[in-house]
Design a protein that fits this description.
Elements: H1 3-35, H2 39-47, H3 49-70, H4 74-108, H5 120-139, H6 142-172, H7 177-209
Helix pairs in contact: 1-2, 1-3, 1-4, 1-5, 2-4, 3-4, 4-7, 5-6, 5-7, 6-7
Length: 229
């Protein structure tokens, strides 16, 4: 690896981690705005979306420039392919954080829907998935990434239960329909963030091992980073 390529990859990594930190912060704030009913915090999340978009474009341009100038192979090429995917997924997470903030603004002005429609537990679990998958990227930790993949099924189950609860409320209390649909949208956005966290986990595993785990049924093989001499 040339010094120029090493330098450019290091700059790229720092930008990608900065984007990850920003997006995690926005998701955390959007969740707090939603469950604690804080419309002003929701507005702050919405105001930060442009910065996410700016960083996403900058990182994509850096990846393409490195590909064109250095024509990397093997591990470095895998890293760039994965970085492009992670970059895109982080930007989409940022958009979903803004969507949650939008719902938080509306729901904070209305009476709560009741105990059966409470996103606190789901939100905590989704935020933990985001935190863990970003840590797995920083540490190149495939085991932690695998734990994120396993956590996604529970989020899907919670969202399905929320859907059933919304159907029941709208059936018996139609006046609450608009609020319930905003709530269901927030649940769906959280579920999509969890899906994107699993995408990033899969990309991290590919980055480190070269194994494509999407749609894979058998266990992921053990991998040890080879010594570079």
């Amino acid at each position: 690896m040339t010094q120029h390529l090493l330098r450019d990859l290091d700059i790229l990594t720092k930008k990608l981690l900065a984007l990850g930190e920003l997006v995690e912060s926005l998701i955390s704030d959007a969740i707090e705005a939603l469950v604690e009913r804080k419309p002003e915090l929701a507005k702050q999340v919405l105001a930060s979306d442009d910065e996410v978009d700016r960083l996403e474009v900058e990182i994509e341009e850096d990846c393409l420039k490195i590909l064109a100038l250095h024509q990397p192979v093997a591990k470095d090429l895998r890293y760039l392919v994965a970085a492009l995917k992670v970059n895109n997924d982080l930007e989409r997470m940022g958009d979903l954080a803004s969507n949650i903030a939008d719902r938080a603004k509306y729901l904070s002005r209305k009476p709560a829907l009741g105990e059966d429609l409470d996103l606190r537990d789901m939100a905590i679990k989704v935020h933990a998935m985001v935190r863990d998958v970003l840590k797995s990227v920083v540490d190149r930790d495939t085991k932690l990434a695998e734990s994120v993949l396993k956590a996604d099924d529970e989020i899907d189950e919670i969202h399905a239960e929320m859907y059933k609860n919304v159907v029941q409320i709208t059936k018996h209390e139609p006046k609450k329909m608009k609020r319930a649909l905003h709530f269901l949208s927030a649940s769906r956005y959280l579920e999509r963030i969890a899906d994107l966290a699993t995408n990033i986990a899969e990309d991290l595993i590919f980055m480190v091992t070269g194994v494509v785990v999407r749609h894979r049924m058998e266990p992921i093989p053990e991998f040890e980073e080879p010594n570079e001499e």
